[in-house]
Specification:
By secondary structure, the protein is α+β, with helices and mostly antiparallel strands. It has a domain of 188 residues: Jelly Rolls. The protein is built from 8 helices and 13 strands. Helix 1 packs antiparallel against helix 2.
Length: 324
């Protein structure tokens, strides 16, 4: 019975050291009848056993996003402690704010039909620091330039120059894009979090554009690595000139793509798992030159008059059949 119990523990996913340790008989791990070989084996296995701690029990600890495939060098324990103490005050402040919002979050008060809840503002430099700007130049694939700065009027200004000229490496065939993407939302102590917009059905933007079309990107990372590139897109059409426009786009209009390819299997946006929001602009089709998109705010809204769940028809075909 003793050996059978520990055999099941090994099947349930224990480490190699635990499987060997629990595979020993009680006599081997006790004081009576133990041999020198058994003592040496126990001494070698015991330090390798995982000892449960407060952090490892699930309070603050989270497993690595890449599982066993991470390749970066892990910092020493001393560096981890020093860096952690520096951020401890900030993280506890975020932890306190989380619980305050959780206790005050009454759906009857928070989600009011017809009212816009601002998610991203652009009134100060910390608001702009929540975004990352990338172009083809950053990856050595082109010569475009872009920046996100405060405009003279005090708003967020995404501007730059697009070039379709490619490096002479014989590999890259197209170039000319710029993109801004919000930082991954996180809770205190660097824990992963998501934007939960399940109570809303419309994305609202107040922008001032240059007449170009921009691509709106909603990132919804899945649990498995094959789903980390899933992004939901829709086009933001802008007007030129000095006037602001308020664009209201239902979430039902967004379509799924992965690495720039529209997927055959479509479905509604998982609004409870949004991790990033982004905007892209490209020079494909001869649209080179400068671009300019000014932001006042980005928000979400629940529109009671919008009842559509998904805008695109899907035809279910038998397995292995693409078209008839």
């Amino acid at each position: 019975m003793f050996r059978l119990r520990h055999r099941w523990l090994a099947v349930l996913g224990r480490s190699g050291a635990e499987r060997q340790y629990h595979g020993l008989t009680p006599m081997c791990r006790g004081a009576a009848g133990v041999t020198n070989r058994d003592r040496l084996l126990v001494r070698q296995l015991e330090p390798n056993l995982v000892r449960p701690t407060v952090l490892a029990s699930g309070l603050f600890w989270e497993r690595h996003r890449k599982g066993g495939y991470q390749t970066e060098q892990r910092a020493s324990t001393k560096d981890l402690i020093v860096n952690g103490l520096k951020e401890l005050r900030t993280e506890f402040a975020l932890f306190q704010q989380e619980w305050k919002e959780k206790l005050e979050s009454d759906p009857l008060v928070v989600f009011r039909p017809g009212e816009i809840d601002v998610v991203f503002g652009f009134e100060s430099q910390p608001d702009l620091d929540r975004w990352v700007v990338t172009t083809d130049r950053d990856h050595g694939e082109g010569y475009s330039q872009a920046a996100l700065e405060r405009s003279p009027a005090g708003f967020g200004l995404f501007h730059g120059t697009l070039e379709s000229r490619v490096p002479k490496d014989g590999r890259i065939k197209r170039a000319g894009y710029a993109n801004i993407k919000s930082l991954r939302v996180r809770k205190s102590f660097k824990r992963d979090a998501f934007y939960d917009w399940s109570q809303y059905n419309t994305l609202v933007l107040k922008v001032r554009g240059d007449g170009r079309s921009y691509l709106i990107n909603l990132t919804a990372e899945g649990y498995y690595d094959i789903l980390w590139n899933d992004i939901y897109h829709y086009v933001l059409y802008t007007r030129g000139g000095p006037h602001w426009q308020v664009a209201k786009i239902p979430f039902s209009k967004f379509f799924l793509a992965s690495k720039g390819r529209v997927q055959d299997q479509q479905g509604p946006v998982p609004l409870n798992r949004i991790t990033n929001v982004g905007f892209s602009v490209g020079s494909r089709g001869g649209h080179e030159g400068s671009f300019r998109l000014e932001f006042d705010f980005i928000g979400v809204e629940f529109d009671p008059s919008h009842q559509e769940e998904f805008a695109y028809e899907m035809y279910r075909q038998p397995k292995y059949i693409v078209a008839t």
